[in-house]
Design brief:
164 residues; 25% helix; disordered N terminus
């Protein structure tokens, strides 16, 4: 009987935990490195949400934990489509995905964007997972010198000019 109660409690907790993940969000930490003339980005995604996005149009589901380069290759292409940086005048800048790191319920993706020189601002389009979840919210925290700011991206507001 005790085993049955533990089993039922485990199933309820697993179901409840999944229900709590009805909130869809990413977190991006963007740092302006004036010395290296680049932007350094860290993007945190929930594993299940991001795997769902990467699996669209693929012959088999994508697992970020699977061995081999497939997940990082697909993630790089996806991030380059949905996370775009350009100069204030609109010239696109190349996003380079450097790697990824697993965390409890998600992954961090580490990226950089080389800049053509010192810039007082960039245009940022942060549309990660907006194509999958209509309620997606993408939080971006920006650090440039002594200035810190945050921006919120969602459907209908995917792009913003970030100044420092």
């Amino acid at each position: 009987m005790r085993f049955f109660l533990v089993l039922v409690a485990g199933v309820l907790l697993a179901t409840t935990a999944r229900a709590f993940h009805a909130y869809h969000a990413t977190l991006t930490e963007l740092r302006y490195n004036a010395v290296k003339q680049q932007l350094e980005l860290s993007v945190k995604v929930f594993t299940d949400d991001f795997e769902k996005a990467l699996s669209r149009g693929q012959p088999t589901p994508v697992s970020l934990a699977a061995p081999g380069p497939r997940a990082l290759v697909l993630a790089t292409a996806y991030l380059q489509r949905t996370l775009q940086v350009s100069t204030p005048t609109g010239a696109p800048l190349p996003l380079q995905v450097l790697g990824m790191q697993a965390e409890k319920d998600g992954y961090w993706f580490y990226c950089k964007v080389p800049l053509p020189g010192p810039l007082p601002a960039v245009q940022l389009r942060q549309a990660v997972l907006l194509d999958v979840f209509g309620d997606e919210v993408n939080i971006v925290n920006v650090e440039a010198g002594a200035k810190k700011q945050s921006a919120l991206f969602r459907a209908g507001h995917e792009q913003e000019l970030l100044t420092w």
